[in-house]
Amino acid sequence: MNKFINTRDEKDEVLGSLAIINGLGKNSGLYTFDEIKKIDLNNLFNNCKIETCVDYKKLANLIISNCFCEFDNNDLTNAINQAYSKFYITEVVKTSKIGDDFLMELYNGPTSAFKDIALTLLPHLMSLSYKINNINKTIYILCATSGDTGKAALEGFKDVKNTFITVFYPKNAVSKIQELQMLTTDGQNTDVVSINSNFDVCQNIVKNLMDNREKILTDDVIFSSANSINIGRLVPQIVYYFKSYFDLVCDNQIKFNEKINFSVPTGNFGDILAGYIAKKMGLPINKLICASNKNNVLYDFINTGIYDINRNFYETISPSMDIIISSNLERLLFYETDKNFDKINYLYNKLKIEKKFEISKNELNSINETFYAAFSDDFTIKDTIKDTFINKNRLIDTHTACAVFAVSKYKKETGDKTKNVILATASPYKFAKSVYTAICDKNFSDEFEYMNNLYDLSGEPIPKNLSILSNLTIKHNNNISQDEAINYIKNIIKNL
After folding, report:
1. Residues 244-267: pLDDT tens digits?
2. CATH architecture of the domain with range 94-109+232-469
3. pTM above 0.90, yes or no
């Protein structure tokens, strides 16, 4: 039976179902694998291969069941089938050419962002976890978003029995399309709240609420999280690294067991951490390229070993990456310090008090064996979008552009001939104004005009969930301060 351990408390060890339900461990620690099990790559490939391709749902079943051993196989199969029936393509994830590299298309879900892959499945994993643990309480889902997680979580949990979800987002720090996606969400159990600050404040609100759960909750309600601090959100993201790798094998682009690189647009460090876990499981990964925007705290850390959050915060055209406190870095450090609980507590207490910490040279060298980092400012992002469209005939969003630039920089600096897969994390239409103006020097009155003109320019279909937004009714309009959060949530709980 796989066990999950709290990164800050070795006594807080639980099975996967409870790690999913709890969301966050004691003392704000994160549940992670006590031991990452190796997977037989050859058996995995053969067991999910159908003719000349790999079945995503079967692959997901095999990997997720390897991580969460408690789930009945038939129940897990049904959960995966229901979750991914909402996607526009049967492959769920598609890998295609982009110049000399490859693009892992992760935006074919119901909200046109990679978060759909985990957040359509998470409610089902929670339901199975309730069943295993015989829990009949209302699960209150708390979620902080820098743009995409919020809508994906709202869509995943809306009208799910015995759940309620509140999403906190930074007002004026997400794109207009991202905001409309959230504010027009229906469902009797959904709640959207804007905060006049940045994502890090929203994330702190969620952690503070969960840390004070004993003072806030009634006997009939428990908290959980839809952010990647929840291991149930992180595990499904491991799957698409294997899927992309196997697709390249099937297409004869790489040989079996040949190493490849993945370039990942990175904010909260969850998506790239899923790649790190995939490597630990046995996927032949050479480098994980950490692509940041102007909020380049991870770039500095990977290059210096110093994690310093005492810095300017920038609102950029890649808002989902506008993050300075990258929660999932803690899980990486947990493994890179050989599961040293005292060291993790020391580092994160220092971060809380001094706003920075530094790891040892040996720990940094170990991290650099797997990770490379690069960052892009807004000018570079726009230049990359234009260059990619003109010279590679691919339309990419502002976050994916960071990963495209990072690959080009990596190849120039290292001369590495290893094949590269770039994670495309969102539809370009979610950031239509920024993408269009990167290519054409012309302005329009609103996001939907940019969307339509971007379609005229590229011919790439507009996802239906985005094209209908202008006709939907605003259903959420709450704005509170950070100090009001606890009382706000208490009042909701009274009525659940």
Report:
1. 999 999 999 999 999 999 999 999
2. 3-Layer(aba) Sandwich (3.40)
3. yes
